[in-house]
Amino acid sequence: MKALVCVKRVIDYNVKPRVKADGSGVDLANVKMSMNPFDEIAVEEAIRLKEKGVVTEIVAVSVGPQKAQETLRTALAMGADRAVLVLCEDEVEPLAVAKIIAGLANEEAPGLIITGKQAIDDDSNQVGQMVAALLGRPQGTFANEISVEGDAIVVKREIDGGLQTVRLALPAVVTTDLRLNEPRYASLPNIMKAKSKPLATKAPADYGVDVAPRLKTLKVTEPPVRSAGIKVADVDALVAKLKEMGVA
Amino acid sequence: MSKVLVLVEHDNASVKDATLAAVTAASQLGEVTALVAGASCDAAAQAAAQIAGVAKVLKADDAAYANALAENVAPLVAGLMADYDAFVAPATTTGKNIAPRVAALLDVMQVSEILSVEGPKTFTRPIYAGNAIATVESSDAKLVITVRGTAFAKAEATGGSASVEDVTATADSGLSTFVSAEIAKSERPELTSAKIIVSGGRALKDAATFEAIITPLADKLGAGIGASRAAVDAGFVPNDYQVGQTGKIVAPEVYIAVGISGAIQHLAGMKDSKTIIAINKDDDAPIFQVADIGLVGDLFTLVPELTGKL
Ligand SMILES: Cc1cc2nc3c(=O)[nH]c(=O)nc-3n(C[C@H](O)[C@H](O)[C@H](O)COP(=O)(O)OP(=O)(O)OC[C@H]3O[C@@H](n4cnc5c(N)ncnc54)[C@H](O)[C@@H]3O)c2cc1C
Ligand SMILES: Nc1ncnc2c1ncn2[C@@H]1O[C@H](COP(=O)(O)O)[C@@H](O)[C@H]1O
After folding, report:
1. Which residues of chain A lie closer than 8 angstroms to B104, CB-CB?
2. Could you tell me the residue range of the domain that residue B118 belongs to?
3. Which domains can be identified in chain A, with CATH numbers?
4. Taking the CB of the first residue and of the last residue of chain B, which one, N or C, has fewer CB atoms within 10 A?
5. Do A215 and B113 touch (CB under 8 A)?
6. What is residue A79's three-state secondary structure?
7. Is residue B14 within 8 angstroms of chain A, CB to CB?
8. pTM over 0.90
9. How far apart are alpha carbons B83 and B14 in whole angstroms?
10. For residue B272, what pLDDT band results from cuts at 50, 70 and 90?
C-alpha cells in the first residue's frame, strides 16, 4: 500500500510570531521556518507503517513556494521515498490545498493519506477532512493510535471527553495528533541520501485547481496585551488576594 | 434575513454547553435553526428547542448518527444547506471533525474558530497560536463557520419554544464504524465551562505526584483540572486535560498554572482567562508575563501550604 503524506512549511514553533506594522500579516522575513510539527508526526507514522511492512512506498507532498523543497527534503531524509512539490509562491487556502491533494491522490491511488491535524500558522484544522470529503473516503481525525487490519484501519482519536475508536474502510485519510508518535531526527547519512531521492515539481493547474483565495484578509492585528501583574511574597498574600476576589 | 443552520452537540439526551456559544454567534448572522442529528435523540431535540434564540429544530433521528460520524453527518448537513445561507458548528472536536467535511462538499472555504462577527461575511479569527488576529471576509455564496466557545456569551439554555421537525436521514455511508469510546466520568466541572481551573505542568513529576499536589487544591476550590502538553505527553493525566493551541481553549474566572513555563502554545489556550495566577520556581518563566498574580517558589511546598490555608 502506498502512503501519501502532506507536509507544510511553516514558522518554527519556537519562534514568537510578530505582526507586521502595516497590519498586512505576520512578518516571516528572516524567520526560522520548519516542517509543521504535526506533519513530522505524519511522516514518522508512515515510516513506522513501512517498517512494519504495511506501507510499501511513501510519497511526501507539499503545496508551497520553492523553499518548501527544504521541507520535502527533510521528509525524504526522515524516510519518505519520493516527493512532490506543487509550486505556488502565494499562500494557498486549505480548500485549494485539499483539492490539489485530492487530485494527486487520484493519480497516485494511495491506500492511506496522512496529514497533520492543524497547521500551526493558519490554525485551520481543515485540510485532512476536506481531502476525505473530496475523495468520498473516511477520515480518522486527531489520531492517537492507528493499526491497519486487512482492508480497514482502526483509529483511536483524541476527542474532548477522552478517546474514541473508529474503524475505517481503506483507502482512508488520517490526521495526526500529538500523542501518535515521537518523530525521529534525520541522521546525517540520511540527509545526504535524501539529496538524490526524486522530487517532482508540479503546478496547481496540473490538477485543474484554481487557487484564488475565497477569504480576503482585511487586516491582521496584535491580540490585546494583558497588563502587567504583580508578584506576591508568600502563600498568605496569595490567600488574601483569593479572598479579595471572592474565590476563597 | 439570512438562515443559519447550527450543529447541536449532544449526547442524544442533553445539549452540550458548547452549542450555546455557537447559537449566540449564529444569531448575529440570521435566523437560527438547530440541527440535532443522533439516534433516539428526542430528548436532545426537545432540549435544543428550549434554547433562547433558536427558531426551529431539525431532528435527524437514525442509527447512522449515533456517534456523530462525520462520514454520515456531513452529507446530511450538505443536503440541508440547500435551504440555508450559513452552517455554524462549535469548535469542539466534533465540530472540527464535521464542519470542514461539509465545507468541502459545498465547495466553501471554512472560517475556523471565529472570535467575532464583524459583518454579514466578515469575522475575526486567531492565527499563529493567537499571536495574531485576522479579520477575514468570505466571498463564498454560503458560509461554513466554527465558533470558539470562549469568545461568545452562552445563549440561555431555556426560555425558547421552537418547533421540532423531523428530517429524513441520509443513508449510512458505510465508510466508517464506531468501535468504542473511553470517556472519563468525573464530578469535576468540564474544563471549557469551569469557573476556576488548576493546571499542572511537567514539574509535577508523575501521575501520582500530580494527583497528590493538584487534586486537593482543585477540590478546595471546586475547580476543573487542566494540564500542559508536557504533563499529558508524560502520562500524568489523560489527553483531554491539555490546554493550549492544539488542546482546549479555556477562559475561566481564575486560572492557576502550577509548574508550567508558559510556552506560546500553552498561553494560546488560557490567556483570555479573567485572572491568571502562576506558581513557578523560575522568576523569569514566561508564564509570569501574562500572570496577574505570581508566586515564585517550590510548588511542592507552596501548593500544599495554599491548599491547607484555604
Ligand atoms: C505542535 C505543538 C503543539 C503544542 N500544543 C500545546 C498545547 O496545546 N498546550 C501546551 O501546553 N503545550 C503545547 N505544546 C508544547 C509547548 O511548546 C511546551 O513544550 C509545553 O507547554 C511545556 O509544558 P510545561 O510548561 O509543563 O513544561 P516546561 O516547559 O518544562 O516547564 C516546567 C516549568 O516548571 C517549573 N518548575 C520545575 N520544578 C518546579 C518546582 N519544584 N516548583 C515550581 N516550579 C517548578 C520550571 O521552572 C518550568 O517553568 C505544543 C508544542 C508543539 C510543537
Ligand atoms: N500547503 C500545504 N502543503 C501540504 N500540506 C498541507 C498544506 N497545508 C496544509 N497541509 C496539511 O494539512 C494539515 C492541516 O492543515 P490546516 O487545515 O491548514 O490546519 C497540515 O498539518 C498538513 O499536513
Report:
1. 95, 98, 129-131, 133-134
2. 3-166
3. 2-245 (3.40.50.620)
4. N
5. no
6. coil
7. no
8. yes
9. 26
10. very high
